Target: Aldehyde dehydrogenase 1
Amino acid sequence: MAGNGCNGKAAGVVVPEIKYTKLFINGEFVDAVSGKTFETRDPRTGDVLAHVAEADKADVDLAVKAARDAFEHSKWPRMSGYERGRIMNRFADLVDQHTDELAALDGADAGKLLHLGKVLDVPAATQMLRYYAGAADKVHGETLRVSGKYQGYTLKEPVGVAGVIIPWNFPTMMFFLKVSPALAAGCTVVVKPAEQTPLSALFYAHLAKMAGVPDGVINVVPGFGHTAGAAITSHMDVDSVAFTGSTEVGRLIMESAARSNLKAVSLELGGKSPLIIFDDADVDMAVNLSRLAVFFNKGEVCVAGSRVYVQEGIYDEFVKKAVEAAQSWKVGDPFDVTSNMGPQVDKEQFEKVLKYIEHGKSEGATLLTGGKPAAEKGYYIEPTIFVDVTEDMKIAQEEIFGPVMSLMKFKTVEEAIEKANCTRYGLAAGIVTKSLDVANRVSRSVRAGTVWVNCYFAFDPDAPFGGYKMSGFGRDQGLAAMDKYLQVKSVITALPDSPWY
Model:
């Protein structure tokens, strides 16, 4: 437990009260079997924020057993969808009631802007939970037109125990993005939050119990990917795994699933999304959109529009205004309402971004602004813009996950499409144009799971989200996300005396 106060931190740094630091298994907060803990640090200062129980294989075994018992014997998968939905709505009500506290946890743990957590992250998460609460009693099979003297229909049944492994950039949203449809489907879950940001997930487990979610239905096991995460993906009694994170780890999860029980896998992986701005665009609007697309959440966004392509007719004007916009983007304490951007999540990510900036310079790109740490303490980096970027450079091909824009020029629509698709990823894309013909043509030509036209980061629970190519497969959001947590069963019954066939 950690109380309010500075706890040795820099003067003026607000530290929220941290109430839950143990594993949550079978409805109880418990120590790890080993007794081990790990540090979660405050990216504003680099200081230790809390010591959290560290799950290992033994703890995952206990969590999976609790989830399996709850699936096989508790009322959760057997109650009506309407009743599950009522409990999920109570869960959402409790999250709403604790919005300020939860936003502060993510702010201190992940370096996320506090005011956006209050008005965006937490409200969007409860909207997601309510969306799937409404879907819980609408899981429908089909009546089949079976040939011969038979009748047939399909049932959609919960898959069982779902493993959920979430990243650190949106701890709250990612928790509910995966857990909400699993709950609606009647599954039980074992959640491994990112080791960098475990605090809000533990709080959500507490609120779920308060809402009436039965013991064992939600289990939360903070720990590291190579231990706790690997134990989930290789477990013979886990029926599916949903993962958001890097492409490299996605490969390991698929291998682990194949070597164990061939559990179903869904992956939302890396991105290197293009933002394509045409000559007819309103330049000021396009500049503001590009700044948002690259620097929002300090660039720690899987769909960040980090490759910005601008048509030659407005390129020079755009470059000038983009630099001015980046320089006006205030980097500072995420608890300060005047800050536009907080620190990178931890020292490792901070150093990784700075290393990519050095790659950009050494490979011949021109650094126009930024490129340096933005504070003496903490993991702050200036908004950074490169020009003279070519498609073969690391900063154009590899996901940086930081506030780094690669700004490039194009001439024709055909060239823009070719450049946009010159990536192994395919998560998202943005198009800025006043031409409906151009918007339609490019949106159908770019190989990406989401395309935004004259907007960016426009998410909604009803809009399926996922990737093409090495950005993964499977969809979050929308009713399509329920498919990850449902099995389809065909039932064929002999019907010898039917009056018609």
Notes: The radius of gyration is 24 Å. The first helix runs from residue 57 to 73. The CA atoms of residues 69 and 116 lie 39 Å apart. Confidence is low (pLDDT under 50) at residues 1-9.
